[in-house]
Amino acid sequence: MIRRRLSALAVMALAAATLTAVPVGKATADEVEQVRNGSFATGMDPWWTTTNVTGELSDGMLCANVPGGTTNRWDAAVGQNDIALVKGDSYRLSFKASGSPEGHVPRVIVGLSVSPYDTYYEVSPQVSVSGNTYSYTFTSPVDTVQGQVGFQVGGSADPWRFCMDDVSLVGGVPPEVYEPDTGPRMRVNQVAYLPAGPKNATLVTTATERLPWQLKDAAGTTVAHGRTVPRGEDASSGQHVQSIDFSSYRKRGRGFTLVADGETSRPFDISPVPYGQLRADALKYYYTQRSGIEISDALRPGYARPAGHVGTAPNKGDVDVPCQPGVCDYRLDVSGGWYDAGDHGKYVVNGGVATWQLLNEYERSRWARTGQPAKLGDGTLAIPESGNKVPDILDEARWELEFLLKMQVPQGEPLAGMAHHKIHDVNWTGLPLLPSDDPQQRELHPPSTQATLNLAATAAQAARLYRPYDRAFASRALKAAESAWAAAEAHPEMYPSESDGIGGGAYSDSDAKDEFYWAAAELYLTTGGKQFADYLLASPLHTADVFGATGFDWGRTAALGRLDLATVPNRLPGRDRVRRSVVKAADTYLATLDAHPYGLPYAPAGNSYDWGSNSQILNNALVIAEAYDITGRTAYRDGAVQSMDYILGRNALNQSYVTGYGEVASHNEHSRWYAHELDQALPNPPKGTLAGGANSSIQDPYAQGKLQGCVGQFCYIDDIQSWSTNETAINWNAALAWMAAFVADQGDS
Ligand code: 9MR
């Protein structure tokens, strides 16, 4: 399906962001100042302040007396409008600033001065009493003459004084040359290798001959040694590399390092223990993503926050939400569910695939040879429902399922049974912003065939998995699934629009055949209905290659149906062929992994890493893992396990993409409420949060300012502003949770 290329156009936050990397700026072009009177030599004009701020000139600086008691940073501001920006040009924003008392953090933006007030670039430096000079480079994602340079100084309980000088925005500057700190040239899984599992590393080196390596224990004693394997140029990073296989060492321990070519790796364990922890942490992530419920400090120390979107001011949702104008004339209670990602939107298709994957993790634990259902059982996740005798993973998934069911168009309406595609704010909000502080109007967007079939698929899956625990819920879910299926059949081509990306992601998709196939598979597995068997057997997707180099995701869902038909016991005629198709896909991914000097089952066409590439890598690993579940062959188990190395540090950037795991790990993921990088009173994302990962298209201006011309794996930056490479999302963490459980299940292998 080619939807991905299209949907990237409807990019969040910036409708006009570029689809591919912007061409490198003109280093030799004239540098032109865009800010007028930035030195305040001629007074305060043309600078403005919000009415609650008094501005005055003091020692040649503009000082703002900021009142206390405002909520958001944009509630008090100083700025200048009518700034012209040229799409694709690089700009240097610089200024001097001080603040008293110590410790305040203004938000400095370059954005649109009129509705919808898009932000093109923002920084939040902590200012000191003595003052500092700040300078940043970014690339404009738009053409406009209605730009603004704004200093947002609200959000403080107490009054304070902010002063600034020499404010400058110069266009036509060369883009910044950013050098990531990649540490030692030896790249390992910084968390753990399984004692009896594969153990591989990658060495960045110009050497072409085999080099000696040593494995050292925590005391520095060499416990194994061997020779490297030259691998030549790695296309995914542009580096010259060699690889090391130290699988023959099988003793448990902590604090090992790998040494070669004068380089010592970051430390790692040989142990299954961290994977047991990661299995829980990757799932615990969902509780702090919940909408509609207060997050308890007792359950998640440091993450407490009021319930979001329960109809309490300033929230305008989600208990009584209207449609977008012209879409419907009823209102729905769509409270609950998980926030999608770093935004406050809730999207049925992404909620659907995330729910599928959690339910699938649970279902696999019940039939797979290495499955351990007790590890997902009641009390494993410390959530409000722990202790209710229902497996915690099912309780967590139900939080989303109940929301998905609420998104269905009510009986009596013309589109009854269809599901609204999404619900989110009218306009994009800024960062940071607790869900409970979101003042925007929320709206239901039109129903879509894809959302309806996501609902059908996951509700059908739920009907079979919750039956032992709650028959009434199982029946309700099945009825919803059947009505959704019927509605989708009646409206097979109501596609979510590519241009519906203001205030929330578009999740556009111009093909629903894959969702039909997936929903039919889940309905068949739950009911055994002949109607669904017939549908599956007649679908061209039943025999097509539904896997491909970038695997499956929220918009390409046929593989979900295929995987479940292959693994969940059923009597579909020709099921052996279905099972073989999964093994065949795994063979292809395994060949990719074997050929890859960094050992990952991912080699996208043109080396173009996709938005959320980490989840695609993990989902390809899932297919290999299921080939192991189907065949019991060690090569598949080892391939799946090895894929985790990339996520946990064996990569070009020498960092783990899971917060709290590995010596150097992502911790500034883009999120409105885990926004510690912008507001020290807020937490970082919880441990077990996966960052989206390298994204060759770098759609956000922060990444564009730093990563122009990046190669594959290098198109990533751990900054909260980089929403196209560094967001957290419910579908991505589901892939991590699934694979963490698989690896944990292998124990000592
Ligand atoms: O993960 C989504 C990616 O596949 C799309 O290309 C991109 C643009 O439509 O949107 C991504 O999803 C974001 C969504 O639109 C809004 N919430 C945050 C999601 C993760 O970045």
From TrEMBL:
Pfam families on file: CBM_4_9 (PF02018), CelD_N (PF02927), Glyco_hydro_9 (PF00759)
Cellulase Ig-like domain span: 182-265
Signal peptide segment: 1-21
The protein's Enzyme Commission number: 3.2.1.4
Signal listed as a keyword: yes
Domain CBM-cenC: 33-154
Active site: D718, E727
Alphabetical GO biological process terms: cellulose catabolic process
Gene Ontology molecular function, alphabetical: cellulase activity
Domain Glycoside hydrolase family: 275-739
KW Signal (keyword) present: yes
Reaction catalyzed: Endohydrolysis of (1->4)-beta-D-glucosidic linkages in cellulose, lichenin and cereal beta-D-glucans
Family indicated by similarity: Belongs to the glycosyl hydrolase 9 (cellulase E) family.
Protein name per its UniProtKB record: Endoglucanase
Origin organism lineage: Bacteria, Bacillati, Actinomycetota, Actinomycetes, Kitasatosporales
